[in-house]
Write a structure and sequence with these properties.
single chain; alpha/beta; Lambda Exonuclease, Chain A; 6-stranded mixed beta sheet; 6 strands; globular
Length: 260
């Protein structure tokens, strides 16, 4: 018998919004086709570096990266994921070029600031027996304003459409809302930012940009969250066939788990 879920994360909401039936497979039936790849390993290792570097500027970032990257690659091998050696090699050199830009980019954007928290956990109540779960990569404070920052690894960067994409930015909208709720802070005192860590960019390897989340956007994000919870609790899992082959496609497309 499937367990009744007690919390929902942004990643879960994003998958539900993409396709409720896919959500059922991943989160309720625990079917996992995608086991990760070189890009997910790289992203995890870079996040590990950022976490440590912002609290200790003298941290051995190369060792931090290489140790975590190797750990993630070994896990992929254990899961029988075939790795591209040339890509892994290039990722090591690309990471090396990025390290020196992380702290300077933060200082250029915010000048003087105080680190409030790193990997701050959220487990805020939505309604009875249901919570919003999340981890905020970095929270800093400048003056009386808090800044929530989420690190994102990518290749050359994001275009304007991606930077303003509704579901992409809802992550920060929800983080802002629940961080404010957790600490009883006026949302007007909180700003949100994505920090892009760009592997293949010729310049500006670290780009920090602000994402705005006003009252209406927050209301819309919370409505979507509430709608997802209602459908999940009532076991309404409609297939979104438009998502089968759109974008990067679905790993369950035409598999035994999901025949069109």
């Amino acid at each position: 018998m499937e367990k009744i879920r007690k919390h929902i994360s942004f990643s879960e909401l994003k998958i539900w919004n993409e396709c409720p039936y896919k959500h059922k497979l991943v989160y309720l039936e625990k079917v996992k086709e995608f086991k990760g790849n070189e890009h997910t390993a790289f992203g995890t290792a870079m996040h590990h570096v950022c976490e440590n570097l912002v609290v200790n500027s003298k941290a051995d970032y190369k060792n931090l990266f290489n140790t975590k990257f190797l750990e993630e690659l070994r896990e992929l091998k254990n899961n029988n994921v075939e790795l591209n050696r040339d890509l892994v090699t290039s990722m090591r050199s690309q990471a090396d070029k990025m390290f020196k830009h992380i702290l300077p980019s933060l200082k250029k954007t915010f000048n003087e600031f105080e680190v409030v928290s790193v990997e701050e956990g959220l487990m805020e109540e939505l309604k009875k027996d249901m919570h919003f779960k999340g981890f905020i990569d970095l929270v800093i404070k400048k003056g009386d304003t808090y800044h929530i920052i989420d690190w994102k690894t990518c290749s050359w960067g994001w275009d304007t459409k991606r930077k303003s994409d509704r579901m992409t930015t809802y992550q920060l909208t929800l983080y802002k809302h629940f961080f404010a709720k957790k600490h009883n802070i006026n949302p007007s005192k909180i700003e949100t930012h994505f920090a892009l860590l760009k592997r293949t960019a010729k310049k500006n390897n670290v780009e920090i940009f602000r994402v705005t989340s006003g009252a209406k956007k927050t209301e819309n994000a919370l409505k979507l969250l509430d709608k997802s919870i209602y459908n999940i609790k009532n076991r309404i899992f409609i297939k979104n066939r438009l998502a089968c082959t759109s974008g990067y496609g679905c790993e369950f497309f035409n598999t035994e788990f999901c025949k069109r």
